[in-house]
Amino acid sequence: EKGEKQEKEIAAAAASRPRLVRYHPGPAAERRGSLSGALLQQLSLTVRHVQEAPSLESMIGFNNTGNVCVWPSEEVLTYWVVQQVPSGYFARKRVCELGAGMAALAGLALACSSHSGSGHGDESARDKGSDSSGSSSSSGTAPLRVLLTDGNAVSVDNIRASLPLVQDKYDARQVDVAAACLVWNRSDAMPALAQQFDTLLCADCLFFQDVHLDLLHVIKTLLVPGVMHFFFFLWQRKGVRGWGRKICTSERERETD
Predict the structure, then answer these.
(1) What is the C-alpha separation between 234 and 240, in angstroms, rounded?
(2) Local confidence band at 133 (pLDDT 50, 70, 90 cut-offs)
(3) What is the 3-state secondary structure (H, E, C) of the chain?
(4) How many CA atoms lie within 13 A of 257 on its CB side?
(5) Taking a C-beta distance cutoff of 8 angstroms, is the pair 161, 104 a contact?
(6) Which whole number is the average pLDDT over 181-187?
(7) In terms of C-beta density within 10 A (0-12 exposed, 13-18 middle, 19 or more buried), how is residue 241 classed?
(8) Phi, psi of 250 (to 5 degrees)
(9) 8 A C-beta contact, residue 143 and residue 93
(10) Are 58 and 13 in contact (CB under 8 A)?
(11) Are 192 and 221 in contact, with CB atoms under 8 Å apart?
């Protein structure tokens, strides 16, 4: 009963005093003499925040850090993602953001900047964006799928509430954007998501070391075989060294098998 009461309180907190926050890179993007700089300059997203300040009650229980704010690490990941779009790095890929929090800023920016960039760029970019009929298309840089996930149901509900706010910024006919609740659990085979993604995005998800093995299981399960792995992190950050050791141990065990 106590657990159900907490869940109701958290759900009520998500519905109370929602804030709509607009994210824009600002003047720094204008100084970048590149296509990615132009994308950053024009990208503007409105996302829904759960509430102005989390209550003490809502912080107790399941990890709720993603509902506190949009953390700087998510903003850095967003910046990196948008920089990669003009090169076609995410073109026709299936992308999943793990631990996206209440805003899923990086994943939403990927979907929206891919579409924003469809009509911008040099002649080669425009040629790549034209189909056989000669019509312009954003398929040149757009991913096929962007799944925004978090293990906190309040975060996922908030992401779903944000999707209509940006639906005019991506082409739903070319990229499937959705939100889903995904709890990291190494005992879950996740048959619906297994080997369904080419790329995983994840920002600042190593702090809680007791879920490292669960996160490794999720990464291995969701990614298609043979893809390359990139991990960007600050080595001094809490939890990172333990994560690195677990990766090395996991790889050695796989080689032994």
Answers:
(1) 7
(2) very low
(3) CHHHHHHHHHHHHHHCCCEEEEECCCHHHHCCCCHHHHHHHHCCEEEEECCCCCCCHHHCCCCCHHHCCCCHHHHHHHHHHHHHHHHCCCCCCEEEEECCCCCCHHHHHHHHHHHHHHHCCCHHHHHHCECCCCCECCCCCCCCEEEEEECCHHHHHHHHHHHHHHHHHCCCCCCEEEEEECCCCCCCCCCCCCCCECEEEECCCCCCHHHHHHHHHHHHHHECCCCCCCCCCCCCCCCHHHHHHHHHHHHHHHHHC
(4) 6
(5) no
(6) 94
(7) middle
(8) -65, -40
(9) yes
(10) yes
(11) no
* 222, amino acid identity: L
Retrieve residue 109's tokens: 């920016």
Summary mean pLDDT of the chain: 74
What number of residues does the chain have?
257
